[in-house]
Prior knowledge:
The complex is a heterodimer.
Chain A: H1 3-47, H2 52-67, H3 70-83, H4 97-124, H5 128-136, H6 141-171, H7 183-194, H8 197-228
Chain B: E1 11-22, E2 25-36, E3 40-44, H1 51-58, E4 66-71, E5 74-75, H2 83-88, E6 90-93, H3 105-115, H4 121-134, H5 150-162, E7 168-172, H6 180-195, E8 199-203, H7 207-212, E9 216-221, E10 224-230, H8 231-236, H9 241-250
Parallel strand pairs in B: 3-8, 3-9, 6-7, 7-8
Antiparallel strand pairs in B: 1-2, 1-4, 4-5, 9-10
Helix pairs in contact in B: 3-4, 3-5, 5-6
The structure holds adenosine-5'-diphosphate and magnesium ion.
Amino acid sequence: MPFFKTVEKLIVNYGNFFTEGVRNTLIISASAVLIGTVLGALMALARMSQIHPLRWLATAYIEFFRGTPLMVQLMFIFYGLPMIGVTFPEVSFIPDFSRFMAGIVAMSLNSCAYVAEVIRSGIQAVDSGQMEAARCLGLSKKQGMTMVVLPQAIRNILPALGNEFVTVIKESSVVSVIGIADLMYRTNGVKAKTYNTLECLFVAAIIYFIMTFIFSKLVAYTERRMAHGRRA
Amino acid sequence: MDAGHNEERRTIIQVKHLTKRFEKLTVLDDISIDFREHEVVSVIGPSGGGKSTFLRCLNLMEQPTSGQILVDGVNICDKHIDINRHREKMGMVFQQFNLFNNMNVIKNLTAAPVKLKKMSKEEAEDKAITLLRRVGLEEKVHSYPSELSGGQKQRIAIVRALMMNPEVMLFDEPTSALDPEMIGEVLDVMKELAHEGMTMIVVTHEMRFAREVSSRTLFLSDGHVEEDKPSHELFDHPESPRLVSFLQKVL
Lengths: 232, 251
Ligand SMILES: Nc1ncnc2c1ncn2[C@@H]1O[C@H](COP(=O)(O)OP(=O)(O)O)[C@@H](O)[C@H]1O
Ligand SMILES: [Mg+2]
């Protein structure tokens, strides 16, 4: 059977498998980026803090999570934590909740490290003269931050956060190894049922690409919009 | 405005044994000097000689390594004083203008005084418009910094500092980043300020400004005030060999 005929057949017969996979992939990615952003903002604050031990801890965290594979982090959280007595609760009305949670926690902790760096470099990219001018007028460091630096840093941070989401969508495929029914997991399922290995991977690749492409375009669009806003 | 009358004037800033080191590098070495009310003092000297560092120590943008800086008799190096309240009294103008890029002109001018409750929003806006008119930029109220020329930015940066009703204005090479044709418009504003009696300390490479507008000129080199005299005297009768060779290079 020609390649594209098979692809068509897969989509018609197993469409709901793929859509469920997409749904879970998006849920996990969005949760990870959302939680990762909140934690990442705090982590960035700690990373830039004047308090030495705090700064050291944050730096260590960031370096560690950026320097080890997501797969390893995921395994640690899913298999390792229960061994030391930390388990995620089961929730009756959501199937596989604890598994899901492990995936989201791992992805969030990982994303946190990257987001923290995004935020920190976004803030540090703002010309230091801006804060100096604020301080010379008698504004406090905090006032200078909120009135002058952060509004400018946001322009650097938002597009980079969008790109982080794109990365996370792709990286999230590793959660399939702990049995979360994301797009990759479902793709493997269909592959096992039909033996159409290449066609299945093709469908998955196209779906991943569509998701990331739409989102990158969205990011590029907002970036352009912001650039049209006034700036130096 | 010549130095002879200085004796009657109140001392605003007293610098006592100011030393500033970065790591091992001594940038300012035991400087003691006074600045009086209504004085316009130029600070000249070779690049890297510590002029910016000296100016930045005066409002504690740099923390002195040792020594005292008394403003209106209060030692601002004292840990217990609120430095932010002191900075309000000392306007600062930078080589790179440093207008807030995320704010339009009127916001640039009113944000700090309103936030710090120096005046109401309406008062601040009235004052801003009045000052803008005086520097000939009232039509730029709603412009953003990116839409202004260097000369316009610097005039607005001066106005921004004036909004706080400072007692002293510090200028760090305010015309050095400007295209030559824009230097005049900024110097004019500074001259006018000087004539109104503003106390000014101006780090500058504009020797004509130093000579003609400032009452006193300091030659700062290698962390020392090598010469400190009424401007005309300093330029007409330089004494230290370093100043002589410096003036030969720049004049
Ligand atoms: N933040 C800093 N850290 C280390 N060295 C500095 C710093 N600021 C200035 N310096 C050094 O101090 C010296 C004097 O600098 P500066 O005050 O800017 O001189 P000027 O304004 O006269 O050109 C220079 O050698 C400069 O490299
Ligand atoms: Mg300098």
